[in-house]
Each structure stands twice: as C-alpha cells, then as structure tokens.
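uracil phosphoribosyltransferase (Vanrija pseudolonga), 215 aa
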Amino acid sequence: MTSPTVHISTHPLVQIQLTQLRLHDLTPKDFREGVRAISSMLMYEAARAVPIADVPNLQSPIAPFTGKALALRVGLSPIMRAGSGMIDAALALFPDATVLHLGLFRDKTTLQAIEYYSKLPTVRTADLVYLLDPLIATGGTIVAALTMLTEWGLTPSQIKIVSVLGSKSGVEHVTTEFPDVEIYIGAIDDELTDKGYISPGLGDAGDRLFNTHNN
C-alpha cells in the first residue's frame, strides 16, 4: 500500500503477535488476549499525534509544574461484534472516552454491510473517533460505519481506523471512498477469497473471539 493515510505497523511485537493469531488451533482465550495486545499497540501508534493542551498550576511532591491533558473529546467506536474485542485496550488508553457502538454485519450472499444497531447520541459527543474493527476484508463494513459517523457530523479527518489485519482490495476500497481517513493496521494480506475472507488471514474474528464456530 502506498497511500499516505495507511500506516502498516512495522513493530516486531505486532508481527510476532499477529503470527500467533493466524494459527488455526489457537484457543479462544489466547485469541482474545492476542487481539487485545495488538489493539493496545496499534492504538498507541494511532494516538501519536493526538492534540494535547497545557494544564498549569499543578503540584508535584517537590514543586509546581505544568502538565498535559487531551485537548479534545475522544470517542471509541467498535463495530459489533468483533470490534468489542478491541474496546478494552482502547479504553485503557482513553478511560474517559465515549463509546459509540455500531452494529453491522456482512450478508453472506451479497457481502454487503447491513446495519442493525447504532448508539450515536443525538448531539455529537466526540471530536476525534477511533473506529475499531479487527478485520478489513471487503471494506464494505468499514465504509458503512464511516458513512454513519460522517452523517453524525464528523469530518473524515476526525476519524481514525484501527484494525488488526486487512486485505489489499478491502483497504483500497476504504481509501477510495474515504481518502482522508487514516488507517492504522497490523498487516495487509494480498488475497481475498470469493466468500470474502482474507487469505491467509486469521478466519472469522467474531467467531474466534466468542467461540461460536459451530453456531
């Protein structure tokens, strides 16, 4: 990917953890812990340029000092259900963030995203939103979520996508539809199967997170 808005992690710990996530026999517990660990590292990278402001007149045990605080309101928007596996890691970094759940699923026949739930307040409560979804496969679900967030009142530059893994075509779909949205991602695989799965990928993230393979 050559888009300046796509940031593929080169951190060795992300790549090692992603290797474990790809393993077909990883337990649901270990898969959840791996997603949480990668999410934490990717969120840290995505927050590198978050605006901060001075907080004067603070007191340490030794002397007065000027500290730092967030200069805007942060929102975290997990796409259910798989995005729920990333929210704890994101909240560890932004404990006061508002959580904006979006419910979208991909129709298995058409591969189109279908909305079934939205928890966006009537009045916008965030100035910067991190959109959380472990996988960008076809890109349709992410594009639908971005449409919901921009219709809520955010500009594309106020949204950052954090994802564990994507397909080349899926990420290109997102950057074509929303070229100003930054994407922070662990890796991008070249292939997408005719059923919409990333290859080699890591399978269905929702099923692996919640142990629902046979449901």
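The chain has one domain: 6-52+70-210. The CA atoms of residues 1 and 100 lie 29 Å apart. ok done for today
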